[in-house]
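Troubleshooting log. The previous run stalled partway through. Resubmitting the same two chains, unchanged.
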Amino acid sequence: MLVNATGPPDLATCDREPIHIPGGIQPHGVLLTLNEPDLAVLQASLNVQDLLGVDARDLLGRPVEDVLGADLGQALRASIERGLLDKHPLFLGKGPLAAGSQQFDAIVHRSDGALILELETAAVDDGSAFRDLYPLVRTSLSGFEGASRVFELCTMAAAEVRRLTGFDRVLIYRFDEGWNGTVIAEDRNDELPSYLDLRFPATDIPEQARILYRDSRVRLIADAAYRQVPIIPPDNPRNGRPLDLSFATLRSVSPVHVEYMRNMGTASSMSISILRDGKLWGLISCHHKSPRVVPYEIRTACDFLGQVLALQIAAKEQREELEHRLARKAVQVRLLGGMTEENDFVEGLVRLQAELLELVEASGAAILHDGHCTLIGQTPDEGWVDRIADWLEREGRDDLFAAESLAGHFGDAGAIKDVASGVLAIAISKLHRGYLFWFRPEVIRTVTWGGDPGASKRPDEGGRIHPRKSFEAWKETVRGQSAPWRPSEVEAATELRNAIVGIVLRQAEERAQLSAELERSNKELEAFSYSVSHDLRAPFRHIVGYSEMLREEESTRLGEESKRYIDTIIESAQYAGSLVDNLLAFSRMGRTTIHPVPIDMNSLTREVVRDVMAEAGGRSIAWKIGDLPKVEGDLMMMRLAMGNLASNAVKYTRPRAEAVIEIGAEVKGGEVIFFVRDNGIGFDMRYADKLFGVFQRLHRMEDFEGTGIGLANVRRIMSRHGGRTWGEGEVDRGATFSFALPRLSGPEKGKGAARGSVSDAETDPAGGR
Amino acid sequence: MLKPILLVEDNPKDVELSLVALGKSQLANEVVVVRDGAEALDYLRCQGIYADRAQGNPAVVLLDLKLPKVDGLQVLEQIKGDPHLQSTPVVILTSSREEKDLLRGYRLGVNAYVVKPVSFKEFIEAIQELGVFWALINEPPPGSLKPKR
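Second attempt completed without errors. Output:
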């Protein structure tokens, strides 16, 4: 065993061990480096003594033909001339060398400026090797074609490689995203135990080893008990650097790996890399209980099979993925249809909730949009959904987030693992906080490791970390994880996100257009009322003015009847004028901006009562005014509303000798309800709904004056404050008019007042009872 | 000689009613009637057809808002922006009860804003009060500048 100056490497230093420059080779062949262009020997492995019967030191500086003989030497020179040499080993040929009758395979490649010639001992070539190989490979290939799934394919490949090589056990080993490996197929005899379904931790094959696997597809360790053969001189005399043996077939391997093999109970191993899209997908890993040399042509055939396998795997995986993706697409089309049919895409998604879940095979979903949270299927509660959304927002995840284990991001997510171990989230609004979540429950899985992966981490008494001794199946239960989100599912989620963002954007544009139209029609209305205020009032003024001048001018000549006619003209024109004025005031009430301030309703009511009493002509009215709470609203409007109700009460109690008017308030639910109650003439409840309409009157003009706009004003004012209005009464038994406003305290404060005049809904569900 | 009252009014009926009302207030001031905003400015600046009129500003300008050519608020703006005219009292006399007109009028420095009442009796009273207040009682000293409001 090699012992170098820095002491034996262990697992902790495994990642840093420079395995591409081991400084020696395995003993089942010899290695020479050659000078160019004269092809004199620069370096030689010390075992040339054993295999070629020459002292390595005597070989240095000698022309390559002295070793290879004329034929192979000629072949080498021809290959160089034809530019065939690069870092990948080239098979020069097979044959006896300059001295002796032993057959060798000559393999040559370039590495770090050096020309490396490797000679492996070989059986006498009777031409059978390739003759037998061809039908073997051909049947393998036709078998591959018939396999429908990756697993099946791999099982076939394992059997074929074992048939070609005669190894005791052949495994197909597949890497996951974390570079852990799982044995997914196996073919073996009884010499070695089964490793099928075992998982091996990523540390078993460190990164630089994976790089070598990717670059150089076939590797053979003929005898784990080998002694490494040094090369002299150790460094390349041309450039003074240690020899890079990354692509050398005889490369000596890490002592840690040899120890690992011995612990596994295998004396020889071979691996063939399976690459998909230039990335290491897995390995064909062969083991033998006893030492075993695999000839070059068999290795080449295995490499060929490995490459075919890789292509077949790629094709099968792509097809499986494509089928899955097509199924997603079909669901997606149904979802899109549903979303565009509804006014609100959320309604569409809720209606098609089965499809929404099917899209990514989730068991629950949550839609967070416009401040509302909609839960579908098995989900955590709204509080959790909010927390996850807050976290995504803070993290700036403004497109997509997928996790199999929420507990990896939230320490206490174990509480919701039954519904949400896995989360897939998409942001559905660029401006507002909006997310669509999918949830998957915990799937408790058992992973069987090839030996306790933790065992490799415990150092021995000397502080050295050894590869684990036992590869006995070691079961681990994985909790808190959902089934993984497949790439096609993540892609489907991304596409749905794009569609939703598009729909939301379009709806926002439509809303903007609608509000622009409303604004325009509002402006028109304003211009209309402006011109009414000027042009419609003027003629009434003129009628009144000229009639009065006429009455004055002709007062002596006019009869009583004529005077009454003129008086009626004047009265009517004045009434028409006040109708216009009231109508304009009403329309202004809907348009002017509300300036909300805290209002003391007690003092407001006192002032209102004082004002209406001034007009009451000395009538006897008993006012009963309770303690009124503060509200928030537009002072001018609130005064007008209370004023209208109070003056109505005064007006309609006129026939009463003893008028009693009561003003009070109560807090009920989220509202403050004010009422004005009188003992006046009342009204018939059948007409109650008419009371709050514009210019609606229930009494004859000569009995009670007025234009019939007062209650319409009250209702409009309340509706603009987010409140409501209603009236109750009985003919001749008095009336009670009430209005309710949202309570001052709490988050709802001022919300009603902020409501725009555009959406000024005059409908009042409680109105007119 | 008393300064004249300038009545800016396009509607002939309003002109007549205003003249009757002013007549009833027994003011001795001459009433000059102009029928649009441009003519009002010509009069005030002694230009155009008023180039040869006797110099001097009116005692008060009774200004309607809805006027042909140059509207009332524009006339007001010109008056209050002109050092020779800004001390002349301006009373807006209009049918409009619009809040924005009212606000704009006061912002531009109008001295009073009167919405013409529908009732003729009230109209006469309003005109009389205005005429007496602005033409007699509140006559500013000639040439003196009132601070801008």
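Takeaways: The first helix of chain A runs from residue 48 to 52. The first strand of chain A starts at residue 24 and ends at 25.
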